[in-house]
Amino acid sequence: MKAITYLATFTLGASALVSTAFSKELEGWSPDLEKALAQAKAEKKQVLVEFTGSDWCPPCIAMRKNVFSKKEFVEKASKDYVLVELDFPNGDADLKKKNQPYAEKYKIEGFPTVILMSPEGKEFTRFFASEYPKTDDFLKHLKEALEKKDQV
Known about the structure:
The chain has six helices and four strands. By secondary structure, the protein is of the alpha+beta class. The chain has a single domain, classed as Glutaredoxin. Strands 2-1-3-4 form a four-stranded mixed beta sheet. A hairpin with a 5-residue loop joins strand 3 and strand 4. Helix 4 runs parallel beside helix 6. It is globular. The N terminus is likely disordered.
């Protein structure tokens, strides 16, 4: 009986942890690319778009947990970028279908892909987010990408 109680407790605890880890929207991130582009124009910022599989892709899950959900990351990245998360979860067919045209338009070949673009939607770089698994490394890469964009 103790084993069943332990298993039930573990299962409930794990499901609560997973449900909070994969809440629909990250704070500071938009799920709507068109609105984000308009916001970027108004605020004179660039746009960071992350293509993710939040409930099935291990690198995506790690990036969300270790970088994208961190207050420090959102605050610092938001100074220069409007943040967009386009999710392709197995657990939400409607959201996946809604975002599919973007995956096709931008020829997404793997997750988690990040595309940096101008407010007009013109891509200036792309990379796999998991190349920069720490907040500081990711922020440094964003700064360098912005500097290179401005030099062109």
